[in-house]
Write a structure and sequence with these properties.
Strands 1-2-3-7-10-11-14-15 form an 8-stranded parallel β-barrel, surrounded by 4 helices. The protein has a 3-stranded antiparallel sheet with strand order 4-6-5, with no helix packed on it. The protein has 584 residues and is an alpha/beta fold. It contains 19 helices and 17 strands. 43% of the residues lie in helices and 13% in strands.
Amino acid sequence: MLKIWRTPFSAFGVSGRRQNDLEDETIHAVDAYTDDVLANIAAAGFNGIWVHGLLHHLVSTPDFPEFGPHAAVHQQKMNQLIERAAGHGVRVYIYMQPPRAIPVDEEAFWRRHSDIGGQEEELNGDTSEVFKVRALCTSTPQVKQYLRQASSALARALPGLGGVILITASEYPAHCYSRRGRILGAAGEVIESALECPRCAARSAPEVIAEVIKLVRDGIREATQSMDVIAWNWSWTFFAPSPCLEIISRLPRDVSVMADFERGGWRITPDNRRQWIDEYSIGFAGPSEQFTATLAATRRRGLTMLTKLQFGTTHELATMPNLPALGNLFIKADFIRRNKLAGFMGCWNFGNMLTANSAGFNYFLSDGAPETQLQALEAFAALYFPGCRSDLVREAWLKFGAALEYYPFSIPYLYMGPTNYALGYLSHPAPLEGKSAGRSWLNDERGDELQECLSGFTIEEIIRDLDRLAAIWRDGVTLLQQGLNCLDHCHAREELANAAVCAAVFQSTANLFRFYKLRRHWREELRKDYRSIAEAELKLLREALPYLEEDRRLGFHSEAHAYMFDAAKIRSKIRAIEVQLEVL
């Protein structure tokens, strides 16, 4: 089984108006993946890693001499990484989205190649810089030839590469349909966005997507038969109803499909509400209806099937090493094992720390693991925490899963909600200033306006659900403490710190929404209410601080490559709240 992972300390790269290709991950991954890092990944049960690459930086071709100015450097660095990883039994995969759209203000390029310009899109870059990009229209013969030639050149230049993982929807603008046509909204509703490229408008999005995959595949096959070509179905449902037969039916039989495990499903909350799951989730065990339909469709066509999931952590709480709902992880792993999937990609550019979650997931896939959930959880607990009360640890993990059923799951909340940074965020007893609090997954400058994340929820519902989540989670922490019984073991220390600070984060997020509710309609007579919330926040900060001082993993977001909270920020917040309380 192919099991793909990555280190949290390799930089994915930054998308901006003026991109320096020497900052790409394909240049610097070799520095992050030392022999020690690779040995740890292999020892944890993984046999693949993925690196983000841009095809037009990795190779040069005659038709587009502007591309690949430092291709030889990229190739030398990647071959060095491939060789080093092979020494640990680990294969390297390049994740890419060809042909990536080019900024409109690359005027010299577009003057020379005006005939292949396609759909224009506005892109909010990773540094909050907004700029326009233009697609290399894949309906033109020149771009089709480029995709095939460049893919062939890549395979020849990196003969030891395990393969490529292709994303062909969402993410950054690429082909003309990337953000046009039939788009699904945050609640699963269909939104039509008109395509302005006349060449692609005469075709269908599934045809364009499948053609891109086939062109890359054909180029690679000119050079080698052994390299994997993996087509990831992320957001294919933008362009075709699940299971996207219009795309799957067009794929060559030696292309593997990697399907998202949780996306495209509904879950029923404990208070009988339906929640649309359109992101990775540890709180939702899955699989989704969309995943099972995709599995059936690929098997009817005879295609190899992998799955994409995140079992370390997700946008649900990405600044912690893991969300330890191992009961749900067993359900995911058990499905993979029973259905004999070819493998998985187990993380994005966050959720990739080695913890009990990664160890447990691979254990549940192993031949020696018990086949029932309760037995498997106890057996893994005894293995991972020698000397523990495995029955109590098992119950703690199940309690964490029960807590996450109250998570206010929605795309607006996941992408714009404050959970990742709430513990380090300082509110003020004053009216709102109205600036957006920013994106949850990047270290944006934080304003105080949270309205963007509330779609589908009232503030009262958010507070109620987060209070329930935190209360049940704290019960799980108590069980974990009892089960570990002061074990002097690194795994015990790490998992207890992680679980305890997760509880603080969820409660702090509820407190932040309480502050927000007061500040939306601020009046001086609300100071007493503000004080009560501030006192509760101060208490949990003081309880969380010792864990943060001991464990540097906590608060780090590996997509942002920044601490959204840490011991220094918590100490500063404690002092600031103490000052507030003096005058309230």
